[in-house]
Design goal:
alpha+beta; two-stranded antiparallel ribbon; 7-stranded mixed beta sheet; 186 residues; 3 helices; 32% helix; 2 domains; Jelly Rolls; single chain
Amino acid sequence: MAKKQIKNTAQQTIKKNKKSQIQLAIILLIGVAVIGYFFYDNIFKDKESKLEYYTFTKEGELTFTDSLGTLKAKIDIEIADNDYERQLGLMNRNKMDANQGMLFIFPRQDYLSFWMRNTLIPLDMIFVNDKKKIVTIHKNTKTLSDQSYPASEPAQYVVEVVGGFTDKHNIKVGDKIDWIGTKIGL
C-alpha cells in the first residue's frame, strides 16, 4: 500500500509541476508580448511620427520662365541655404503639394550631385547655374536611394519639386528661375 501511495503522490507532484510549468510558460509569453508591444510602441512608432515632424514652411516664391521671360509656373518654396538645411533637404517627409518645392542655395557654382537617401516622395531635381538658367533636370527620382543625380554642368542652385512637375509645366533645360524670399538677404 505504501508503494501505491508513494506512486500516487509522485504522480500528483508531476501533474502539479506540469501545471506550474504551463502557467510559467503562459506568464512568460504574456511578458514577451508586453515587452514586444512596448518596444514597437516606443521605437517603431517614434520613427513613424518623426516622418511627420518635417513639414513645409513657406519662405518664398519661385517662378519658372522660358528664355523669353514667359511665365510657365510659380511655386511656394522652402529655402535651404546653410549646410544643415542642404543636408536635410526633403528627407523624412511623407508629402509635398504640387505647388511647393525646396530651393537649395550654394555659396558658389560647382558640379553638384544629389541623392534620395531617406526621401520618401519622388522628385524632379532641377539644377540651375549662377545666371539662374536651368542646366540639368532629373525627373521622377527613385525614392530611398543612394543613386547619384549629378548636374551635367556647374550649378549654384537646385530646385526640388514633386515628381512629374517639370513635364506638367513643360519646364526644360534653358528655362530660367527667379525667386523672392523671406530669409535675410533673399
